[in-house]
Amino acid sequence: MIYSATTEYAIRALAHLATLEPGERILARDLAAATDVPRQFLGKILHRLARQGMLDSAKGRGGGFKFSRPAEQITLADVVQVVEGKD
Questions:
Q1: Is 10 exposed, middle or buried (0-12, 13-18, 19+ CB in 10 A)?
Q2: What are the start-end ranges of the E strands in the chain?
Q3: How many other CB atoms are there within 10 angstroms of residue 61's CB atom?
Q4: Dihedral of CA 77/80/83/87: which sign?
Q5: What pairs with residue 55 in β-bridges?
Q6: What tens digit of pLDDT does each residue of 15-64 get?
Q7: Quick count: other Cβ atoms within 10 Å of Cβ 14?
Q8: Full-model pTM
C-alpha cells in the first residue's frame, strides 16, 4: 500500500515523538524542523491526532505535543485510520 504524504508526515512526526523521554512535550515548529515537514501542514496533522486521542496538546509555556498513551500502544494501522479516515 502506498500512503499519502499526510500519512507519511504523521509517521515521521510520531517516530520523532517516540525518541523523546516519556511525557516530554515538543512544539509543532520544533517537530516540523526535526522531521522536515511543512510547519502549517504538520500542525493540522498533529491537531487531528490529538482530537482522536493519540496525542495530548497544551498551549502556553511548557506546551506542545506528547503521546497521550505509551507509543508502544499506537499501531501503524491506528495512524493510517486517523489520518486517512474522516473525522
A1: buried
A2: 55-58, 64-67
A3: 5
A4: negative
A5: 67
A6: 999 999 988 999 999 999 999 999 999 999 999 999 999 999 998 888 99
A7: 23
A8: 0.88
